[in-house]
């Protein structure tokens, strides 16, 4: 019924109004959705930039990207210098899944495509792309894929990889959000790297100052060993070796080893003359190696070294050794700043080596001066007093009738003569310069006695008489030294002696070498086998060799003429 008060609107204007209202509501919803995603992006950015520890930053980048676009899986592949994947941080997989997959991705297929051409890749279904080369056994199924490069300034640091388990794809808006997040991630990574580098430099500088103070201290101990330990700690390396040339020119000895397997490696030799360490010594230039498998260095358990730094130890402009710092195979390479700091420490190690050499020289000079003073005192005072005492005893014996008393005095004079001879030998040994190579038979006999002393109960007593250094030279000296060595070795092997003496005398045209011990004597078999060579050396020179042995000891006398040698 029309009461005259109802209002009717035309259908067409009302439809347009409803459509406008619907569009307005949809746009409002889109704005709210965009605002929500922008807030999520802001939260993700904040979560990334508020950390300065690089490993934590990398993990937060992946986690934030996954949360931002609602992905099931996410990963960040960090690129090595050669373009391969150095690290692979993933989110979404369980520890059991990671173990089942085994090795990390190596940068092939789609991952490699993003490395070769660092631009975003978005796929509705990963398996449909010809660049997809499949998954290893144990890998969870993945559908949609989104890959975005992460740049640090103009350098591609790595790539963000996102995927879903089902076919729900990523939108262009998702790509824009992840690309924006990757830009922030690049800044965060750069800040974290700069912070880590600053921290490393501060730690190296503090340790350098500490080592310098230790180096200048008079009680610095083994400065090189201290340095090796500090470098091991600061570089987060697995091993630090100080390599020095060995006795064989083709060998390097690991003089100091710190880190893994140090007890077995210290003192071992590197015989590869073409090794990196040997080339460092020849060139005098430091070298960094990102994969040290080809270095040829292995631990005693067979493990190979990986990333390594080799820095020369310079002395007077020449490389005298190498500081080798390395991590085990498969670990991260060293930063450039690590090589710079290691080179700085190597310079300090070179100073330490020079200081230790100077201190050793000074200590030797003090010892030599002290020995010289003792030798002068023995010569100027002790020998003169003994000689005077002997003359006085001879005078007393001459005034006494023949009998037991005079015989005892004469024996005492003989003992004094023997004592004077021993003291003169000591004076000669004390006066010899340690820096000079032994050039006389006296040196050689004294050195031989000291060399074999640890195998005897006491150091052999050595005495000389006559001009032995003038007469016993060249091949005669070689024979004398060989006879003395073989005789003393026989004493060590067979005699069980408490005291041994070696005397070398030149008199009346002959050279006399006498070795006496208080052991249990020779048996007949030992007598024949042990002295045949000694007898042959004497006979070949026209001399004689005699052995007297019983349960109280043994006396060997090797006697040869020297006129035939001098002719």
Q: What fraction strand?
A: 15-25%
Please state the oligomeric state of the protein chains shown: single chain
The CATH class of the largest domain, by name, is Alpha Beta
Structural class, from helix and strand content? alpha+beta
Number of strands: 16
Instruction: Output the CATH topology of the largest domain.
Output: Beta-Lactamase
Give the % helix. 40-55%
Shape: rod-shaped
Q: How many domain modules?
A: 3
User: What is the tally of helical segments?
Assistant: 15
Order of strands in the sheet with the most strands? 8-7-6-11-10-9
Mean pLDDT: 75
Biggest sheet statistics? 6 strands, antiparallel
Radius of gyration equals: 43 Å
> What low-confidence regions span 5 or more consecutive residues with pLDDT below 50?
433-437
């Amino acid at each position: 019924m029309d009461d005259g008060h109802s209002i009717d609107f035309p259908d067409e204007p009302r439809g347009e109004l409803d459509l406008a209202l619907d569009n307005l509501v949809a746009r409002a919803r889109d704005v709210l959705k965009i605002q929500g995603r922008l807030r999520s992006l802001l939260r993700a950015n904040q979560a990334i930039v508020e950390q300065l520890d690089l490993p934590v930053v990398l993990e937060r980048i992946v986690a934030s990207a996954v949360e931002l676009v609602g992905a099931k899986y996410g990963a960040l592949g960090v690129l090595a210098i050669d373009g391969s994947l150095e690290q692979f941080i993933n989110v979404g997989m369980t520890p059991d899944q990671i173990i089942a997959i085994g090795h990390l991705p190596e940068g092939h297929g789609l991952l490699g495509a993003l490395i070769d051409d660092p631009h975003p890749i978005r796929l509705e279904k990963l398996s449909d792309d010809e660049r997809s080369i499949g998954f290893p056994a144990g890998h969870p199924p993945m559908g949609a894929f989104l890959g975005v490069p992460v740049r640090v300034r103009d350098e591609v640091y790595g790539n963000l990889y996102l995927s879903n388990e089902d076919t729900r794809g990523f939108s262009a808006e998702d790509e824009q959000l992840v690309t924006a997040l990757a830009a922030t991630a690049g800044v965060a990574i750069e800040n974290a790297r700069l912070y880590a580098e600053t921290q490393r430099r501060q730690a190296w500088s503090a340790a350098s100052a500490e080592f310098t103070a230790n180096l200048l201290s008079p009680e610095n101990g083994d400065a090189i060993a201290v340095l090796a330990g500090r470098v091991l700690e600061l570089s987060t390396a697995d091993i630090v070796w100080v390599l020095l040339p060995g006795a064989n020119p083709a060998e390097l000895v690991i003089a100091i080893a710190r880190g893994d397997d140090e007890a077995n490696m210290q003192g071992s030799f590197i015989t590869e003359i073409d090794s990196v360490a040997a080339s460092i010594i020849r060139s005098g230039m430091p070298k960094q190696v990102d994969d040290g498998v080809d270095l040829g260095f292995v631990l005693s358990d067979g493990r190979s070294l990986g990333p390594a730094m080799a820095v020369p130890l310079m002395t007077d402009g020449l490389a005298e050794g190498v500081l080798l710092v390395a991590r085990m195979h498969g670990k991260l390479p060293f930063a450039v700043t690590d090589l710079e700091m290691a080179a700085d420490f190597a310079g300090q190690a070179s100073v330490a080596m020079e200081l230790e050499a100077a201190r050793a020289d000074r200590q030797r000079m003090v010892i030599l001066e002290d020995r010289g003073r003792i030798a002068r005192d023995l010569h100027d005072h002790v020998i003169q007093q003994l000689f005077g005492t002997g003359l006085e005893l001879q005078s007393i014996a001459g005034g006494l009738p023949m009998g037991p008393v005079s015989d005892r005095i004469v024996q005492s004079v003989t003992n004094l003569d023997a004592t004077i001879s021993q003291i003169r030998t000591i004076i000669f040994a004390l006066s010899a310069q340690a820096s000079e190579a032994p050039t006389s038979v006296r040196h050689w006999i004294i050195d031989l006695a000291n060399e074999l002393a640890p195998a005897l109960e006491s150091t052999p007593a050595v005495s000389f008489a006559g001009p032995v250094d003038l007469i016993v030279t060249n091949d005669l000296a070689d024979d004398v030294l060989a006879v003395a060595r073989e005789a003393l070795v026989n004493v060590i092997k067979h005699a069980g002696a408490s005291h041994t003496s070696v005397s070398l005398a030149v008199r009346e045209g002959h050279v006399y070498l006498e070795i006496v011990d208080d052991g249990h004597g020779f048996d007949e078999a030992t007598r024949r086998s042990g002295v045949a060579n000694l007898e042959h050396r004497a006979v070949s020179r026209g001399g004689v060799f005699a052995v007297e042995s019983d349960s109280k000891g043994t006396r060997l006398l090797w006697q040869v003429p020297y006129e035939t040698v001098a002719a």
